[in-house]
Amino acid sequence: MKKAIVLGATGATGQVIITELLAKDIQVVAFARTETKLKELMKKHQYDQRLSYKVGDIFDYQQIVAAAEGAEILFLCSGVAYQEMEEKLLLFGESAMKAADSLGAKIVVVDGIYVYGYQIAKGNESHPKHPHTKKGKLRVDYEKLIFSNKWQNAKALIVRLPDYYGATSQGSYMQPTLEGMANKKVSIFFGNLKTPREYVYLPDAGKMIVNIAEKDDAYGENWNIPGAGLISGKEIIEIAREVTSNRKMVIPLTKTTVRFMGLFSSFMREVVEIMYLTKEGFVLSGEKYENRIGPIPATPYRQGIEETLRVLMNRKIDKK
């Protein structure tokens, strides 16, 4: 791979994928709809000559095609708000796939684990897809679209992440906890504090996603992007308190609490149905990655959380 385009470049996964591509000396086009954020991204990378940007609308496949000239791989990192998922998810998936097909390019689609529904203790890529939520069912339709045989020239793969965290995170469930702790405020935590859950550190995810994308025989398949095992909310908060010295309250949000908050917030109304993910310590199996790609990058939680908090605290200082 000599050149790639990252769709949704200013988002959580888009940013870490760009960092990893540049580390491998690959030319990158950052594609997003907001020029201000794209310029901030360029500044972050010290205006690296291997990185350029294009402002565009992901729902217009011709704009993607024009921006992706010469790119061998498209990384589809764009997402839609929960409130807009039914309306927009398949539309932007169709646009990205149409662009890849027109270009005769490979495409790496970043997605989550809603397709699995209620889960067992540990799941590999062949775990049954029996979603019980509307978001999960929609994601199954999304997968069918990506792997549809109507795409004659595009080669696609899907990478599936659990909840994630890191300095570039913007909408994950651990994010408000870490941001509150870094800003010396009362924080919230989605779910109870005792259940161990899996999270992937975004820089690790970026490495794994790019490593998979470079393998020609990886396409046409689903791939797990596992985290560093399980950790409870209580443990996360203990680490955060050590780093930030913030002793203020952290409020756990149960399904009942989130449902009540949904009376006033359209986002929270949509969160209710996926609160089941906070009840079980489901872990994505990384066996396939280990067997076909290599060792899994797995930054220990203590190190990853500390690194994230340091960035968040420095960001607060910079704004003063």
UniProtKB/TrEMBL annotation:
Keyword presence, Flavoprotein: no
Keywords, alphabetical: NADP
SUPFAM superfamilies assigned: NAD(P)-binding Rossmann-fold domains
One Pfam family named in its UniProt record: NAD_binding_10
Naturally occurring in which organism (per UniProt): Halalkalibacter oceani
InterPro entries referenced in this protein's UniProt entry, alphabetically: NAD(P)-bd_dom, NAD(P)-bd_dom_sf, NmrA-like_oxidored
The UniProt record lists the keyword NADP: yes
Protein's name according to its UniProt entry: NAD(P)H-binding protein
PANTHER family: NITROGEN METABOLITE REPRESSION PROTEIN NMRA FAMILY MEMBER (PTHR42748), NMRA LIKE REDOX SENSOR 1-RELATED (PTHR42748:SF7)
Source organism superkingdom: Bacteria
